[in-house]
Specification:
The structure holds 2 protein chains of 2 kinds.
Chain A lengths: L29 H11 L8 H12 L4 H11 L3 H8 L13 E6 L2 H5 L2 H12 L12 E6 L11 E3 L2 E3 L7 H8 L1
Parallel strand pairs in A: 1-2
Antiparallel strand pairs in A: 1-3, 3-4
Chain B lengths: L25 H6 L4 H8 L2 H11 L11 H6 L9 E7 L8 H8 L1 H14 L2 E8 L4 H16 L15 E6 L9 H8 L23 E5 H13 L1 H4 L10 E8 L5 E6 L4 H8 L9 E5 L8 E2 L9 H6 L8 E6 L4 H15 L5 H18 L7 H12 L7 H26 L7
Parallel strand pairs in B: 1-2, 1-4, 2-3, 5-9
Antiparallel strand pairs in B: 5-6, 7-8, 7-9
Helix pairs in contact in B: 2-6, 2-9, 3-6, 5-6, 5-7, 6-9, 13-14, 13-16, 14-15, 14-16, 15-16
Classes of the chains: A alpha+beta, B alpha/beta.
Chain lengths: 179, 429
């Protein structure tokens, strides 16, 4: 469980972690405290939606229909509304992803400097196609843009960790680190 | 001067302490003169602070270049409704990574800027809307915010002044359009980040229907320096229309990519060739995008201009966010433009038909040209679609997608024609 977090920053906790439980309760203990802290920072409950979805994803790894319904109840919104908002943002996962979500930046800065080869090597190393989860449930490789670190290409983000200056020859070492 | 490639010709004001780990925690920041400007500001009136910023000529660094002090002066002073500050830290323009470095190395510089600016516009709550992908940066920023609360720079009665301010860090979730100021406000309110029709402007009806000022990270980070040292001091750099210094994020085919801070009258060619070292050895510069992927592409012989807002505009492009993208002669221009357009096609929020359909059409046509399956009528067709996308939508994303296409066809038409007529690429291997 997470430790007590200052109310000012409860709405800004990176969500994509390797350890997640699709059936984790929403929200108990320290997470209930965070939920209350988030609500305390806005003039209405709707404004807490992104931070609360983010926290649900941190716990469960993705936003299942049941998760969306629960978040809607807690914030006095409709499930349809919550789904329409969640589907707008690429970082909200509406289907399960692998333990390691590998995001490769293919924005113009990285593309000019060889991101395509890094993507190909990662797909080969994980035995997957873009957006597909490996059979063992370990990896999902997706192309994203732009990760906002264009001077350090290629940028790869695995869950909540960023790797800069990734070259094709670094892929093997990266995969070992994830195992 | 270790920060990746610090250069003696830079004017490092905001970036002075980049690369110094000790500048990140609050004690290190105070040792470097941090929070002195706040003491000075709290002893003055909010209107005095706004006047100093007006006199300095500081312009918004997010891309639009609107005068900051003037923007602040639109905020109501009567206190009838709560005023808000929203710091736009949703840096997403491809090629731009300056705000990230400000927050990563000098989070307290931004926090101090937020406090002073909130005081000037009489806000009691400030939100920093930071993009969700900045996972490492947000941890650093969060730590700094907690420190600022613990030391009494945030919260009730800041440093005995009677001024109260809360600051909340709010994480985005991956939407380029949340960086558009009204898209940001909708996102902050828990909605899809769809831009709003203006007017009403945020200063009239912003976050939660209340008067709000939206300022970029780099803009807010400049405020403490201006307040502490004065408007004339800031005007020692740049031109009369573009005073001060600006961070340039430099990427693509360069020997020394990274962030450089230069006066706004600095020569663009010198920035590329002297500071960034130019393209890799044996390569020629083919094209340059000076202000993020949504500004017109320049040819290598157009870049002998100064980097001011008006200097780059006279040379045929825009300063934008200062995201400089260099392309050498190994670049396939069709591919580069296709890549940028695909980004806008993905990020279009879909509200306006011209943008939703236009971005996808542009991408589709560029993909077939790149594959060698282009048709004779494709170039006029691209230009026609581009013309129908510009100036016809709620927000500028549509224009942003059309600009690289139209400018590339105008300036690098030969490369598009080679793909269409001969099915070959002119890039040098």
């Amino acid at each position: 469980m997470s430790e007590s977090i200052h109310p000012a920053v409860c709405s800004a906790q990176p969500s994509q972690r390797a350890d997640k439980n699709p059936d984790a309760p929403l929200f108990e203990g320290a997470y209930k405290e965070r939920f209350d802290h988030i609500l305390s920072r806005y003039p209405n409950k709707r404004a807490a939606l992104l931070p609360v979805l983010n926290m649900a994803q941190e716990l469960r790894g993705w936003l299942s229909p049941a998760t969306i319904t629960r978040v809607a109840e807690l914030l006095e919104l409709t499930p349809d509304y919550v789904r329409s908002v969640a589907s707008f943002y690429t970082m909200f996962q509406l289907r399960p992803v692998g333990r390691h979500l590998i995001q490769v930046c293919i924005g113009i800065g990285c593309d000019l400097c060889g991101a395509e080869e890094v993507v190909e090597d990662l797909l080969e190393a994980t035995g997957t196609r873009i957006g597909e989860t490996s059979r063992d449930g370990k990896y999902t490789v997706v192309e994203v843009e732009c990760l906002g670190a264009c001077g350090f290409p290629t940028v790869v983000q695995v869950n909540d960790k960023v790797y800069e200056n990734v070259k094709p020859e670094d892929v093997e070492g990266l995969m070992k680190e994830l195992d | 001067m270790a920060y990746p490639h610090a250069h003696p010709r830079e004017a490092r004001v905001l970036s002075k302490h980049f690369g110094e780990k000790d500048a990140i925690p609050i004690d290190g920041w105070i040792e470097r003169g941090g929070y002195k400007a706040l003491d000075k500001a709290l002893a003055a009136s909010p209107d005095d602070i706004t006047q100093i910023v007006k006199d300095s000529g500081l312009r918004g660094r997010g891309g639009a270049g609107f005068p900051t002090g003037l923007k602040w002066s639109f905020m109501p002073k009567d206190g009838g409704k709560p005023n808000y500050l929203a710091c736009n830290a949703d840096e997403s323009e491809p090629g731009t990574f300056k705000d990230r470095e400000i927050m990563r190395w000098t989070p307290h510089q931004l926090i101090e800027g937020c406090i002073i600016s909130s005081y000037a516009i009489r806000a009691k709550h400030a939100y920093i809307y930071i993009r969700g992908e900045f996972v490492d940066v947000v941890r650093i920023l969060n730590q700094a915010v907690v420190e600022a609360y613990e030391r009494g720079y945030l919260g009730k009665n800041i440093k005995g002044s009677g001024y109260d301010l809360d600051l909340t860090v709010h994480l985005g979730a991956g939407a380029y359009i949340a960086g558009e100021e009204t898209g940001l406000l909708n996102s902050l309110e828990g909605r899809r980040a769809e831009p709003r029709i203006k007017p009403p402007f945020p200063a009239q009806r912003g976050a939660f229907g209340m008067p709000t000022t939206v300022n970029n990270v780099e803009t807010l980070a400049a405020v403490p320096h201006i307040v502490l040292n004065g408007a004339d001091w800031y005007r020692q750099w740049g031109t009369s229309k573009s005073p001060g210094t600006k961070l340039f994020s430099c990427c693509g085919h360069l020997q020394r990519p990274g962030n450089y801070e230069v006066p706004l009258d600095f020569n663009l060619r010198d920035l590329v060739f002297d500071l960034c070292g130019g393209p890799p050895k044996g390569r020629q510069l083919l094209a340059l995008i000076p202000g993020g992927s949504s500004v017109p592409i320049m040819t290598a012989d157009e870049i002998d201009c100064d980097v001011s807002y008006e200097g780059i505009e006279a040379a045929g492009s825009m300063l934008g966010s200062g995201g400089l993208i260099a392309m050498d002669d190994s670049t396939c221009m069709v591919r580069a433009v296709r890549r940028m357009v695909e980004f806008y096609a993905h990020e279009s929020c879909g509200q306006c038909t011209n943008c939703r359909e236009g971005t996808s059409w542009l991408a589709k046509i560029l993909r077939r040209i790149e594959r060698g399956q282009g048709r004779e009528e494709d170039l006029p067709l691209l230009l026609d679609i581009g013309a129908n996308m510009a100036g016809k939508t709620i927000c500028p994303l549509s224009d942003s997608a059309a600009v690289p296409v139209v400018s590339a066809i105008q300036k690098f038409g030969r490369e598009f024609e080679a793909h269409i007529q001969d099915g070959r690429c002119t890039a040098v291997n």
